[in-house]
Amino acid sequence: MGFHPVEIRIQVLTLTAWGIPTKEIAVFLELPLRTVHDIISRAKARGFDPVQHKRVKMEFVEDAKRSGRPKEKTKEVQNAVVQSVTTDQAGSEKSSEI
Q1: Minimal CA–CA distance to 39: which of 4, 65, 68, 71?
Q2: pLDDT digits (tens, 9 = 90+) for 28-41
Q3: Residues paired with residue 87 on neighbouring β-strands, in sequence order
Q4: Do 42 and 77 touch, CB atoms closer than 8 A?
Q5: Which DSSP category does 16 fall into?
Q6: Which residues fall in a compositionally biased region of kind Polar residues (predicted)?
Q7: Fewer C-beta within 10 Å: the chain N or C terminus?
């Protein structure tokens, strides 16, 4: 499933809570039916229950945590990169002119 903005996911869940069939939701929002089902399934796994509460909480539609190691860049490393880009070998500031 490709990325869909939080606003679209909220619309899918709101329409679901009000009893609109998933096929109609897919047509209204111009989404594949599979995507609508995936959004609803993920929200239900996070606690969404349209029968008990029609309110859509942000925790139902938030982006999932990405896998993989997060990038590590300390302030010192970031400053060193900026310094190396903005100064020449002699330590003088680089000209922005071409």
Answers
A1: 4
A2: 999 999 999 999 99
A3: 93
A4: no
A5: H
A6: 80-98
A7: C
Q: Which residue has the tokens 């990405």?
A: 66
- Per-residue pLDDT for 1 more than 50? no
Give Cβ neighbours of residue 42 (< 8 Å, ≥ 6 apart): 64
Query: Residue 26: which pLDDT band, with cuts at 50, 70 and 90?
Result: very high
Contact 56, 44 (CB under 8 A): no
For tokens 């002699």, name the residue. 90
| Rounded Cα distance, 55 and 24, in Å | 20
Is-contact 12 26, C-beta < 8 A? no
CA angle, corner 31, sides to 53 and 17, nearest 5? 10
Is the entire prediction scored with pTM above 0.85? no
